[in-house]
Amino acid sequence: MDYIRQMEIEPGMDADELVRMMERCGFGARRLAEAVNIYEEMLSEDYTKFFTLAGAMVPAGMRNIVSSLIRDGRIDVLVSTGANLVHDTIEGFSHHILGDSEASDANLRDEGVSRIYDVYVGDDDFVRFEELLQEVLPQSSDPMTGTDFLRILGSRIDDEKSILRSASDFGVPIFCPALSDSMIGLQAWLYKQTRKLSVDAFSDVGELVDICYGAKRSGIVMIGGGVPKNFALQSMLVTPKSFELAIQLTTDRPEPGGLSGATLSEAVSWGKIAPEARRVTVYGDATINFPLMVASTLTRLERRA
Question: I need a labelling partner for 16 at 20 to 30 A (CA). Which of 104, 218, 282, 294 fits?
Fold first, then answer.
């Protein structure tokens, strides 16, 4: 019989020492510790590493973590919302602003400021974003896949810390199944009014399925849920395989029936995740759990090396 170990905090503890203490605790602490154990296996062994990104993670400050994981070869496939890619582009020439979640939104609108909880972004930044996209969007009458479109876009962003640029530099495909539901989609539509641009979004499905077929073993980290989560998971349905490692960081609950809160056990019933897979859902704010999970895992890998 194992017993709960009461945590002891000491000065100078690093992220991994803290997480290892959590392993013998209960509730969310133990879930986070298990997420690190799974992530360590995913990064240290021969897995095709899928990563899905939903929620306002880039405006909240998570951009450079994702970008570094790409550049260090720790993400093989990225599936993102369009909004995170928009804010990734904005961060290349400006900065999101620390704001106030209790501010008057009417006053903010008068000042030309948009609010994402306690983060601000100015209208001037969106104007610059629109101008930039009109400069860098590819012009072609031949259909291209969504991943090709984002690769070209990333190659024209002059910021090596950009998620789009990093993925383009290192050959990591970015899938954005709801690209039209973003300022990139809106600007691409405006661009098409005067120039040639053809994106075949359905081809992305086949491209991702091919990656799933070709993977010997697959692991997935899901930040939030939504379309990125489903797009990645459903791609296993037409293959004889399933994800063998799975980590989800979310604040959503399963009871309302929404995909963002759907349990990883439920995904087993669909054949998306293998019954014997190592899997864990960590409930809580991903802006806390994600950096801590990555910091702890990278510390372990560095010590092993």
Answer: 218
Query: Which residue ranges form the domains of the chain, and what is each CATH number?
Result: 15-304 (3.40.910.10)
* Neighbouring residues of 296: CB distance < 8 A, sequence distance ≥ 6: 15, 16, 18, 19, 36
- For 53, the 3-state DSSP assignment is strand
Give the pLDDT confidence score for residue 60 in this predicted structure. 97
d(CA 21, CA 17): 6
Q: Which one of 49, 161, 229, 272 is the catalytic residue? A: 272
Q: Which of 194, 196, 231, 208 is nearest to 82 (CA)?
A: 231
What pTM value is reported for the model? 0.96
Question: 49 an active-site residue?
Answer: no
Contact 235, 212 (CB under 8 A): yes
Half-sphere exposure of 150 (CA within 13 A, CB side): 33
Structural contact between residues 41 and 247, judged by C-beta atoms closer than 8 angstroms: no
Model pLDDT for residues 78-127, shown as the tens digit of each residue? 999 999 999 999 999 999 999 999 999 999 999 999 999 999 999 999 99
Continuous segment of H or E residues that includes residue 81: none
* DSSP summary character for residue 261: G
